[in-house]
């Protein structure tokens, strides 16, 4: 404990002798802590936070395998056939990976660009999404 008190006294004396260096060190330390905090906040929001869906632990993503590619999106017809024939899952939903396009949706009288793509009728039901207005699409 005496060693710690001695180190603190030495640090304070050194900071008094060269205040510009002490201020620069304090600013650099503050910037480093700020950058680390911001990086963790972004990583937490994107990677570590759970998905905003019902029963995330029960959600399964299916990929097809073609030649040397392990993660090829499942085709639309295969999704529909899988939904009809499977008994392993409660519900099956799918999304069209052939591309998305931008739509202009009016928000408070102003056009807001929104990405859109095709989904199956049960897609939102699988995710447990509840619409704020209107109703979900059906099969």
Outline of the structure:
The chain has helices at residues 2-17, 19-48, 76-85, 123-127, and strands at 64-66, 69-72, 101-107, 110-116.
What would your notes on this structure say?
- The protein is of the alpha+beta class and 139 residues long.
- The protein folds into two domains: 2-48; 56-127, no CATH class.
- Helix content is 44%, strand content 15%.
- The strands form two sheets. Strands 1-2 form a two-stranded antiparallel ribbon. Strands 3-4 form a two-stranded antiparallel sheet.
- α1 packs across α2.
- The N and C termini lie far apart (72 Å).
Helix amount: 40-55%
List segments where confidence is low: pLDDT < 50 over at least 5 consecutive residues. none
Shape: elongated
By helix and strand content, what is the structural category? Answer: alpha+beta
* Rounded radius of gyration (Å): 27 Å
Distance between the termini: 72 Å
Question: In total, how many domains does the architecture comprise?
Answer: 2
- The total count of helices amounts to 4
Q: What order do the helices and strands follow?
A: HHEEHEEH
Strand content: 15-25%
Q: Which strand order does the major sheet show? A: 1-2
Largest sheet: 2 strands, antiparallel
Overall pLDDT metric? 84
């Amino acid at each position: 404990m005496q060693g710690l008190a001695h180190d603190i006294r030495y640090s304070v004396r050194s900071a008094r002798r060269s205040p510009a260096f002490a201020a620069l060190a304090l600013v650099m330390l503050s910037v480093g802590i700020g950058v680390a905090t911001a990086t963790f906040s972004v990583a937490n929001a994107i990677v570590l936070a759970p998905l905003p869906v019902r029963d995330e632990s029960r959600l399964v993503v299916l990929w097809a395998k073609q030649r040397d590619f392990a993660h090829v999106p499942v085709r639309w017809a295969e999704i529909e056939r899988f939904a009809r024939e499977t008994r392993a899952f409660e519900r099956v939903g799918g999304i069209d990976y052939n591309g998305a396009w931008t739509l202009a949706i009016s928000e408070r009288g102003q056009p807001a660009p929104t990405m859109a793509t095709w989904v199956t009728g049960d897609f939102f039901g699988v995710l447990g999404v509840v619409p704020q207005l209107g109703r979900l699409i059906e099969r």
